[in-house]
Hints:
This protein is mainly alpha-helical. It has helices at residues 10-29, 34-42, 44-59, 66-80, 86-98, 119-138, 142-165, 167-193, 211-217, 223-228, 237-244, 273-280, and strands at residues 253-254, 268-269.
Amino acid sequence: MTLFRHPEDRIPVLLFLCVFALDLTVYxxxxxxxxxxxxxxxxxxxxxxxxxWNHHHQHLNMFxxxxxxxxxxxxxxxxxxxxxxxxxxxxVVGHHLNYLDQEKDESRWKRDDGSTMGEVEYSLxxxxxxxPRAFQVGRRYPKxxxxxxxxxxxxxxxxxxxxxxNWFNALFVFLLxxxxxxxxxxxxxxxxxxxxxxxxxxxxxxxxxxxxYNLMTGNLGYHAAHHAKQGLHWSKLPQLHAQMAKDIPATLxxxxxxxxxxxxxxxxxxxxxxxxxxxxxxxxxxxx
Length: 288
């Protein structure tokens, strides 16, 4: 019996574990102050990409067995700052249910007076309230809340042991990257929905068709498709986007962020039908 729900998850999980092994190697072997600091900078963007996969996992667990999923979530927690069931509560049964209503959305981009937040304001506010809001949603889902709290306790205990053993390396290899990844992840989500007020899923998200971006983020650029069917495995999102493309306005596309685009990062695009079709011809059938 296979350990994975979907075979497409095998290589990504192997890569996440390799990154974690490198984290541990730097933590246990670095004797110069500059190496952990350099590692923090070098891995900032890759760990942001891993956050996208953590997101996919908390929508649809990668393993068939709960203990393996909890172990993977410990790794994800150290890499992204988003622990077990935090994204499930804040995002899956929070944001996805409420993103069309800015009075309820856990990732709301509107201020209380109805005006639009700026990037930094949104990112700081959403990052700082992420765990309180996850806990608040969890009061409606007590089973998930218990796992969230228990795994949070385990994550904190392990982080405490790492600080006890070597506080400097723990700070720069684990704690600061956790905080930075959480912030960068929230900052990236600002561009998913900001300014869009509608009741239609096809019109409520910006999309990114850049091939490299979708390779690194598990097709997160097909965001309207993801919201239309949030339980769909990441490998099948391009095909759903292709089915929805005719209903997605041409103005709801963006450039990817750094490092894929250095000039005009996250800028809005207006794609022609031919440009959308050309991008979709690059999509391989799921499982191929």
